[in-house]
Amino acid sequence: MNNNQPLPWDNKRFWNWIAVARACHVVKQRLAKELAPLDIKLPHFDILANIYRSEGISQQDLAHKLLVGRSNISMLLPQIEKRGLIERRPDNGDKRVLRLYLTDKGREIARRGLDIEVGLIEMSMSTSTPEECDLVGDVMKRMIANMEEPYD
Rounded to the nearest 5 degrees, what angle is found at the Cα of 32, between the Cα atoms of 28 and 37? Predict the structure, then answer.
């Protein structure tokens, strides 16, 4: 960067990007703190919540939803399974595929965690009107779509 180039922090978009990144970080920190009494870490909660929503999801589909590799999921699932929160069962049509199901204990933890998450969402978004919330969502969806496009 030479002395004639504008600095990143002179760009309003830079500060808006920092605000988005900070908001994401703060929300994750707060959610992790709020989940602590349930003795569940954020990556485990993400897995439980997605299985709760899509009972019988395959490990591969879960990894895709969570934007992580299958190896990450393969490392986390045994930890959750050992705690008696999930069960892995073979797919009826393809024995190579494992389907994920919550146990009663896992369903209870997921439900309580979702209640915590919804409470945090309501609290954090309460400073905005419904129209502003929609606008934030629309902008984030456009940003995601723009970032996911392949580079030419």
Answer: 160
